[in-house]
Structure formats: structure tokens, C-alpha cells
């Protein structure tokens, strides 16, 4: 499992390592500079290397890298864009001077223009200007230096983060370095998970700079990133004596005239994710269609109004609720008065595990608090409506938006996007990095809801089920890329490939489902 942190969390880790565990800051800086030098060697070939250094610890890492590169025989040169350097950075600047590294102090944009030959002659430029402690867009001299970098063909290696990128959100509101590669210290920074930060950082190397493992795994306030192999620990173990009831029962309340596909995709995904039994409450005139489409699903024809669900749905399934483990409410439900009444009625009656999606979210009362057993799965447009804000503000900080809504609703919120963010009301946050543009097709969200419900029905709590569902859903879409271009991927392809994704994620390795005499 990987973790990412924002600037405040990373700063706290550094401070604890230095203050509480006695690790000198100069050692951390030396290790950081060494990591930068290691990557630089592979990028520079035999050409010269220009290191752009700012006033803080980021610049200090650059001074160390310059010294180590010089000691290895590489022609390194420093451009210092700072009037004052202090602390460990100043000591490393003095060491660089002592071994004869050329240092050009650039104090103005005029000086920058006169030093143009330094830029054009470099085979590699190292960006050690500003780190995670900087806020706001770079201005003045540093902003001008970034704009000069944009005109070069030389690759750029960023130290910790590309200068100008917000390390928390990945935003760039002014001049920003577009790096070919980035060496980030200790842990990934959250801004590297989101656009445009993930593209600005280029190829990422997470450097071990000697921070104690107990501070990093898990880091306080960290953002979780699932990897293949993590899924098995996120889900309950299935004994070899399992039967359909033990694997979980799901009730899906979905579908309306013209939207039978949403119900079908959700049910199919729930079964592929391992649910033992799936019941589908469907408007009665659609029952024959869904019975034919889904032979493994138990369909329940319910009263309807204008081809959609109405209040009578809950009465038709009430006797079933005592045996149900998870309810899915919303896929293809419709936006009429009947579905609106039904959603309010179900939310008032059912407090167990719940996946609320699509039209279920549309009818969710603005001020209703749910429970930590509920998972909401909005896309950006639905989240904007739920949170009462603009889509642009959500795109600027999807992690913050998901966390705020999760706390407000006291539920798990899965904010769909590239990447998808998962947050609950208890301080857990995760980002899913699987998936591709093939998921930008109607019906993909219905598959995701079914997968999440399948995991919840087997006993996974809301946050873990949402993270696992997002991971295998995206991984199945990635598997589809082996067969077809992303533009051709359909939700049915994702359902079909869910078993392959589960196997790749280690789901089948949780236990041996065969009885002992067949092992």
C-alpha cells in the first residue's frame, strides 16, 4: 500500500524526525540531494547539468546534488536565485563553493537574461527553486526563470515537486515547471495524484531519505493508495464451507422505462464481485425483460407510476428487508415524483449498508445525515448539487470536497473522476489510480455501484468496500485495454473482466474455497 501526504503532514513528519527522534536535518538534506543526483546521472548522459536553487531547503537539496555530481565527475553548475540562504542550506552552499562548483548569483531578471548561455548549454536542468512550503504562484525572478525553462528542449528534473505546482491539490495558478521527472522525498505528495500535477511531475521517484518507517506507514493524515495485493486484506475471508447466504444478499432498487440497462449492469457487477444472492426490485412492466437478461437475479415486480418506481416499491419488498445485507438505491431510477417519494421512504426505513447512486443522489434531501454504513457515489456534477457549489471549485480540490461532504453526511463519499477520491466521516481518505478514459461511458457508474455493494454484502465496511470497488472497477477497465482501444470499452466489458481484475488484485488468494479433500 502506498501513501501520499499534503504539505502540512510532510512538514510534521520532518519535524518529528528531527525534534523527537534526533535525526539531524543535514542528514535528511544529504540523503535527499544524493537521491536527486542518482536520478540526474541517468538523465544527463555525459552533458553538463544546471541546478537552479532557491532560498529554502529545496535549494539546499540542490546544493548537495551539485556537490555529489561534481564529485562523480559531472560538469555541474549552480544558478542561485536567492539573496539569502540560511541553516543547512547555507552550509551546503559553502561546501559547493569549496570544491569549486561554478555558482552564478542571479538577483534580477536582467541578470537572468544575461545568464542565458547557462540555460542553453545544459543537457539537464535541475529545478530546486521552491518546495512544498511555497504558497501561491511564483512571481518575479523565479516566475521569469520558469518561463525561460519553457523555451528549452533540455529535460528538467524537479526536486520534491515542480516549482509552481500546489503540492496539496496539483493546481498551477501561474508559471509552473513541467518536469520530465521528479524526485519526491519520503512520500508522494497529494498534488501529484491529481491533474495537472500528475502530468507536471513527469516520471516519479519516491526517495528514502532516512525518515523513520513508523512515521511513514501509515503517516498521520495520509491519503491511502491501494495497490495489487492490498485487496485481500480489505475484504473478509471466505471459508470453504461458504453458501450463498453467507456470501451476502443484496437488494437493488433500480430501473425505469428506457433505463433497464442501469439495473442490469449493477446486478451483474454485484454478482461478479462475489455476492451470494441479488434481488432486483423493478417496475412490473419491465420484469420480463430483466428476468430474461439476468437469469441469476431474483426479480421482484413492483407497482409503478409512469413507468417508474413509486411508494409501493417499499411495501412490496418490506418482508425481504430482514434478510438483506446491503441495499443499492438509484441506478436508472428516474426523476419523477414517484422515485422522489421512494428514496425518502427507503432512507427513513433502512439504516443498514447502503449504496446510493445516480437518481438516488438526485432525490437525496440536502440536509439529511446518513450513517457510516452508507456509500454515496457522485460524479462531479452530482457532487456540485449535493454540496451546493460549482463544478470548477470541486475540480480544484476534489479531495477536500469529498472529505467535507463525508463529514457533513457522516457517510462514505466516493467522488468519481480521474482519479476517484474516497473519504469517510472518520478521517480516512483514499485515492484510486486504476482506470482509464474507457470508463467515461454511460453505465460505468452502475457497474461500480454493484461492485461496491458486492463487497459490502460480504462484510466489508463502507470505506473499504468503496476503495476495493473503485480499484477493481478501474483495473477491469485497464484489462480491457489489452483487448481494445479505450474508446471501444463498454460497461459490459468491465463487468466481464471483473473476475480477471479480482484475481490480479489477490481476491482469489484470500483463502482456498475448495473443501479439504479437493485441495
Q: How would you summarize the topology of this molecule?
A:
Elements: E1 2-5, H1 7-19, H2 25-44, E2 49-53, H3 57-71, E3 76-80, H4 87-98, E4 103-105, H5 109-114, H6 116-120, E5 124-128, H7 140-149, E6 156-159, E7 181-185, E8 188-189, H8 197-200, E9 203-207, H9 213-216, E10 223-225, H10 231-234, E11 249-253, H11 260-272, E12 277-283, H12 287-293, E13 298-302, E14 304-305, E15 308-309, H13 312-317, E16 326-329, H14 337-349, E17 354-356, H15 359-362, E18 374-376, H16 380-387, H17 391-396, H18 398-409, E19 412-415, E20 420-423, E21 429-432, H19 444-457, H20 462-480, H21 491-504
Parallel strand pairs: 1-8, 2-3, 2-5, 3-4, 5-6, 6-7, 7-9, 11-12, 11-16, 12-13, 16-17, 17-18, 18-19
Antiparallel strand pairs: 1-10, 14-15, 19-20, 20-21
Helix pairs in contact: 2-3, 3-4, 11-19, 11-21, 19-20, 20-21
Concise account of the structure shown:
Helix content is 40%, strand content 16%. It is α/β, with parallel strands linked by helices and 519 residues long.
Amino acid at each position: 500500500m502506498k501513501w501520499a501526504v499534503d504539505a502540512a503532514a510532510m512538514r510534521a513528519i520532518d519535524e518529528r524526525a528531527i525534534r523527537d527522534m534526533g535525526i539531524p536535518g543535514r542528514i535528511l538534506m544529504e540523503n535527499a540531494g544524493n537521491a536527486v543526483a542518482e536520478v540526474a546521472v541517468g538523465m544527463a548522459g555525459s552533458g553538463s547539468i544546471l541546478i537552479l536553487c532557491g532560498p529554502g531547503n529545496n535549494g539546499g537539496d540542490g546544493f548537495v546534488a551539485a556537490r555529489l555530481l561534481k564529485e562523480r565527475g559531472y560538469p555541474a553548475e549552480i544558478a542561485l536565485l536567492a539573496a539569502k540562504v540560511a541553516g543547512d542550506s547555507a552550509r551546503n552552499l559553502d561546501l559547493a563553493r569549496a570544491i569549486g562548483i561554478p555558482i552564478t548569483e542571479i538577483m534580477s531578471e536582467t541578470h537572468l537574461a544575461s545568464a542565458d548561455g547557462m540555460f542553453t548549454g545544459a543537457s539537464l536542468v535541475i529545478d530546486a527553486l521552491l518546495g512544498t512550503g511555497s504558497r501561491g504562484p511564483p512571481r518575479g525572478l523565479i516566475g521569469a526563470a520558469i518561463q525561460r525553462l519553457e523555451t528549452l528542449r533540455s529535460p528538467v528534473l524537479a526536486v520534491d515537486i515542480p516549482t509552481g505546482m500546489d503540492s496539496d491539490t496539483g493546481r498551477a495558478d501561474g508559471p509552473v515547471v513541467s518536469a520530465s521527472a521528479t524526485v519526491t522525498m519520503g512520500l508522494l505528495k497529494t498534488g501529484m495524484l491529481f491533474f495537472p500535477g500528475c502530468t507536471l511531475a513527469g516520471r516519479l521517484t519516491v526517495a528514502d531519505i532516512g525518515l523513520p518507517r513508523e512515521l511513514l506507514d501509515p503517516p498521520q493524515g495520509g491519503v491511502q493508495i491501494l495497490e495489487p495485493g492490498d485487496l485481500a486484506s480489505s475484504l473478509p475471508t471466505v471459508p470453504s464451507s461458504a453458501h450463498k447466504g453467507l456470501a451476502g444478499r443484496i437488494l437493488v432498487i433500480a430501473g425505469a422505462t428506457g433505463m433497464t440497462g442501469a439495473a442490469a449492469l449493477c446486478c451483474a457487477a454485484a454478482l461478479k464481485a462475489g455476492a451470494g444472492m441479488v434481488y432486483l426490485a423493478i417496475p412490473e412492466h419491465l420484469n420480463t425483460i430483466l428476468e430474461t437478461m439476468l437469469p441469476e437475479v431474483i426479480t421482484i415486480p413492483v407497482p409503478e407510476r409512469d413507468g417508474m418506481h413509486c411508494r409501493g416499491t417499499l411495501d412490496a419488498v418490506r418482508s425481504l428487508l430482514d434478510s438483506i445485507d446491503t441495499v443499492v438505491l438509484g441506478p436508472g431510477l428516474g426523476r419523477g415524483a414517484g422515485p422522489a417519494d421512494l428514496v425518502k421512504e427507503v432512507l427513513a426505513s433502512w439504516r443498514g449498508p447502503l449504496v446510493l447512486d445516480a437518481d438516488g443522489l438526485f432525490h437525496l434531501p440536502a440536509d439529511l445525515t446518513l450513517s457510516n454504513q452508507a456509500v454515496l457515489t457522485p460524479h462531479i456534477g452530482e457532487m456540485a448539487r449535493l454540496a451546493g457549489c460549482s463544478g470548477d471549485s470541486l475540480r480544484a480540490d476534489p479531495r477536500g470536497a469529498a472529505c467535507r461532504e463525508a463529514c457533513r453526511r457522516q457517510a462514505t463519499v466516493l467522488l468519481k473522476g480521474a482519479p476517484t477520491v474516497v473519504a469517510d466521516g472518520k478521517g480516512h481518505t483514499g485515492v484510486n489510480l486504476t482506470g482509464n478514459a474507457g470508463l467515461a461511458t454511460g453505465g460505468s457508474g452502475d457497474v461500480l455501484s454493484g461492485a461496491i455493494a458486492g463487497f459490502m454484502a460480504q462484510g466489508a465496511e463502507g470505506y473499504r468496500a468503496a476503495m476495493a470497488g473503485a480499484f477493481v472497477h478501474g483495473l477491469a477497465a485497464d484489462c480491457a485495454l489489452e483487448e481494445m482501444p479505450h474508446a471501444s470499452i463498454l460497461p459490459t466489458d468491465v463487468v466481464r473482466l471483473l473476475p480477471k481484475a479480482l484475481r490480479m488484485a489477490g481476491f482469489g488468494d484470500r483463502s482456498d474455497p475448495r473443501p479439504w479433500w479437493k485441495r
